[in-house]
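Q: Two folds, back to back.
A: First:
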Amino acid sequence: MTTVGRILKEARSQTRLTALDYAHLILDDVIELHGDRQFGDDGAIVGGLGRLAGRAITFIGIQKGKNLQENLKRNFGQPHPEGYRKALRLMKQAEKFGRPILTLINTPGAYPGVGAEERGQGEAIARNLMDMSDLKVPIIAVIIGEGGSGGALALAVADRVWMLENTVYSILSPEGFASILWKDGSRASEAAELMKITAGELLNMNIIDKVIAERGYFSSEIVEDLKHHLIETFDELSQLDTETLLEERYQRFRKY
């Protein structure tokens, strides 16, 4: 197995910590909030409030399950439009009360089903991209597993985008890429090599800002490293005036 193939396999492993795992390990006084106030509550996107070193923050994550039953409940980490609208509701709430935002991303992509499209999947993602670019509070996005397509980007228009060491971030899945390019989804491993989807490759291209070292699927060192960097970076971003914060976020994505 190639290095990229190994990383892709590890990124998709069900033994990885989930968004809720990280929220409870990093934050104190976690309260989960539900619903988009329009249609329903999407189990694939979780979010709420917590405290990071005493600072109130809003966290939003894309949640996968650790077994078949949990994955069915979480739709295998593939959000519906009401999930993205719930995320945006929580982000707007964070902006209103001046809370920084942490997003934790692990998805193969947004759910492509008929119902999701009927309820405005594309519009919900596009609305998140547009509104996140103008949110007047600091945002940090962390890829904790898969970061697939617009489904991941809808939570990643941030001031800082980080990846754990054994994760991937891409415009679509390697299987989808291979199916489009060669009409053969079985060539996913070959496609993954061409796509440059690993943390190290994306850091070298300045697509992301930091790689968090991993020591297995779970270790207290990973959590402590991530917590330390979050505290330090939220402190740094909170010192910026709103105009500078938004301009730097805008330029971050315009440089691509």
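A: Second:
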Amino acid sequence: MKKIVTYGEILARLSPPGYKKVVQANQLDIYYGGTETNVSVSLSVMGLDTLHVSRVSADFLGKAAINYLRGHGVDTSYIQQGEEPLGLYFSEPGSVVRSGVISYNRNHSAFRAMNPGNINWREIFQGAKWFHWTGLTPAHSENNYTALKQALVTAREMGVTVSCDPAYRMGLWKYGREAHETLRELVAFTDVFIGGAEQFNELLGTDFSFSDEDFSKGCAAMKKEFPQIKKVYDKTRTGKNASWHSIEARVWDDNKVYNCNPIEITHIVERIGTGDAFAAGVIYAELNDYTAQEAVAFANAACAIKHTIEGDANLADAEEIKQIAEGNTSGRLKR
């Protein structure tokens, strides 16, 4: 088994059933997720050995979140519990010309009170092949920045491959640390970078466009600034409306860009977690030694199929994703 470690907040999501607005709803469905959590669950469903590090509330909600991860095969041995509440967010789904809306309630969550001194990263990384992090985790608190930095230093010392999605959320950086410099410091530990022009420009202060030519130039600039980076994966989305998107991806590997065919989703069921599904697809493909062309097609297919699955995490197995990557998008009933 190829062991993957993730570190990040576990959230409970409350959403009205179907495509109702919250003002119409008399009840809310509950889902558990969080960016890194979704990656861990997805990889576990695809058959890999995953371990998630986090901190949740010491109540029935926190226990339910842990049980959700356990139910999908994720190792929860290193999830701490505390008196603070579990982080929440509310999601109102979009449809056609109506945009989806999200509201967070996580400012005083259990995860923000994480104690870095209680995390034994050397023990956690025993037997691990991969560590994945995102820019959301160091945005929460000094505690989480410190814990993540310790994880990255330990991962490098132990030869664990590191991937990152440096997602920047302006609303999270409230505790005094400057986001730009902090992310630059942490990205320096990364082997596989997930991002494109927007992320390049945020980290480097550049103005690259979304073209393939600028993507290649941006990747070279990232490599020059962060020599540890070996590959860069980027997902792009073209939306006709909230229900109809076209998804495509590319990878920069050994100074060459590989593209895949776009996948059109004409009836989106769920938008939440699609980027996390892409990241999980990247990790799965890399750990299974896919070629660059195969890897980018697989990651794109993982992202695409997640649009058809309710909830935060991609629950499609590797074989389902492979079929879509190979062009089987008919959706015909299997008997």
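Q: And?
A: The radius of gyration is 19 Å.
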